[in-house]
Amino acid sequence: MKLRIISGSLKGRMIKAPDSNLTRPTTDRVRETIFNLLHNKIDFDGISVLDFFAGSGALGFESISRGASNVTFIEKNYPIYKNLLENIKSLNLEESCEIVKSDAVQFAKYTTDKRFNLILADPPFFQYSIYEVVKYVFGNNLLSEEGYFIVERSIQTLKKDVEGFGKEPFKRIGDTCLYEFTKSTEAKPEGD
Questions:
Q1: Which of 11, 27, 84, 180 has its CA 20 to 30 A from that of 121?
Q2: Hey, how many other C-beta atoms are within 10 angstroms of the C-beta on 191?
Q3: Gap between the Cα atoms of 123 and 2, Å rounded
Q4: Dihedral of CA 43/106/138/164: which sign?
Q5: Residue-wise pLDDT tens digits, 4-40
Q6: pLDDT tens digits, 64-117
Q7: 175 and 152 Cβ atoms separated by less than 8 Å
């Protein structure tokens, strides 16, 4: 399956979605909504982006296309990691992209020396480690003062997610729910 970059300097370029039942690429409609919402909040020029559960890298590539200076992709599955590496090479983005082959929770838990202006997470819908990721992002101060952290989830996990994040989604698009976190609206995930 091929995905297209929606806007910016890479508009229309195609990337390959991994051949895996472990990923569910963010649809064009959801990506467009996310970035239209962010466009009103963030100046993308020169920002640093973190893309958890990176998969094809579509969210990170949209960020680069709109002006982000660099993206750190977090992906633990080796075949998906390899696909992501191929996408980076096909777009000639080796200098502005880094892939960390790691579990998202482990990266968030043990990274203490980096700050990101934008953090994006599109975990598998029925994986609940995202609550720990959010907790460690704020516990380790990974989000910059004026930064945004957007998490994509399914309407099917709404009740558990509202409990886990301590907040309602800020946007619903079909069966997708988006949660927004900032330093001023920091979530209080379960276990705190």
A1: 11
A2: 8
A3: 20
A4: positive
A5: 999 999 999 999 998 766 566 778 899 999 999 999 8
A6: 999 999 999 999 999 999 999 999 999 999 999 999 999 999 999 999 999 999
A7: no
Crossing angle for the helix pair 130-139 and 158-165, to the nearest 10 degrees: 20
Which runs of E-coded beta strand occur in 86-175? 97-100, 116-121, 143-154, 171-173
Q: How far is it, in rounded angstroms, from Cα 162 to Cα 148?
A: 18
Say if residue 187's pLDDT is above 90: no
| Distance from C-alpha of 19 to C-alpha of 167, rounded to nearest angstrom | 34
Q: Are 121 and 153 in contact (CB under 8 A)?
A: no
